[in-house]
Amino acid sequence: MESLANILEHELTSAFEVKDEGSLHRYISVLAEQLAVNERSEREHTEFRETIARIDTRIEEGFKRMDQRFEAVDKRFEASDQRFESMQKSMDQRFESVQKTMQQRFEATDQRFETLQNTMDQRFESMQKNMNERFEAVQESMNQRFEMMQSSMDERFESTQKNMNERFEAVQESMNQRFEMMQSSMDERFESMQSSMNQRFESVQETMNQRFETVQQAMDKRFDDVNRRFDMIFRFVTVGFVVLATLMSVYQFLV
How much is the mean pLDDT over the chain? Predict the structure, then answer.
């Protein structure tokens, strides 16, 4: 810039008759400073536009990452629903299998009891037929003992049946309690996850608002600085033109 000022001063000195070299030197200095200010302002405008473009790019990338995270959260919710449905189906199948097994065992017990009853009836009838004459008293005693055995077997079967029913009801109640506890735990975890997601979304929203306000304030400040510089440049140019016009008028008047 100093070389440019020297060149302008040399050319003007060669082209015109200079009466006041100090005034010419000051004019060249002001003009050179004006050119330097214009160049610096243009460079700052270019840097400011590049900064705004980078900020826009970062904001768009941030929104894209937020969309990707929302999609990942939706997929995780869908996977949780599928796992819960699979667990429910597996529990239903296992309960049906237990029910079917218990029913088969009860039926097998009934069949074995009927077979034993038939076998014992046949044996007692054969014994009665063969020893009817010789053992009437024994027959009466045997009949009493058979009735007692029958009563005892009936009581034991009823007790077994009652015990099985109580155990089945206890198993049913335990399974219902565990399912209710699992359902309550799942509800609490979903509510906790929903609350955490809402808090994180509110925090992100507040952070974005603060950053937008900071950027807006910085942009307003930069625009105010640029406007003040433009006003100063315009005043310098106006003063330069007035001085130049005055010098030309004085020069024409003197010539």
Answer: 80
Q: Residues near 19 by Cβ (< 8 Å), separated by ≥ 6?
A: 254
Q: Is 20 left (phi over 0), alpha (psi -120 to 50) or beta?
A: beta
- CA distances 195 to 73, 176, 188, 199, 202, Å, are 14, 28, 10, 6, 11
Q: Is the pTM of this model over 0.90?
A: no
Residues near 35 by beta carbon (within 8 Å), at least 6 away in sequence: 1, 4
DSSP string, 108-148: HHHHHHHHHHHHHHHHHHHHHHHSTTT-HHHHHHHHHHHHH
Which residues in the chain come in under a pLDDT of 50?
none
Give every CB contact of residue 236 below 8 A, 6+ residues apart in sequence: 30, 33, 34, 37
The distance in angstroms from the start CA to the end CA of the chain is: 32
Report d(CA 28, CA 54) in Å as an integer.
39
Dig out the tokens for 74 from the structure.
């939706």
- Quick one: 56 exposed, middle or buried, by C-beta within 10 A (0-12, 13-18, 19+)? exposed
Is residue 124 within 8 A of residue 146, CB to CB? The reply is: yes
| Six token digits for residue 102 | 């218990």
Question: To which H or E segment does residue 16 belong?
Answer: none
Residue 13 to residue 8: CA distance in whole angstroms: 8
Exposure on the CB side of residue 106, measured as CA atoms within 13 A: 14
**How far from the centroid of its chain's Cα atoms is residue 49's Cα?**
35
Helix (H) or strand (E) holding 38: helix 21-130
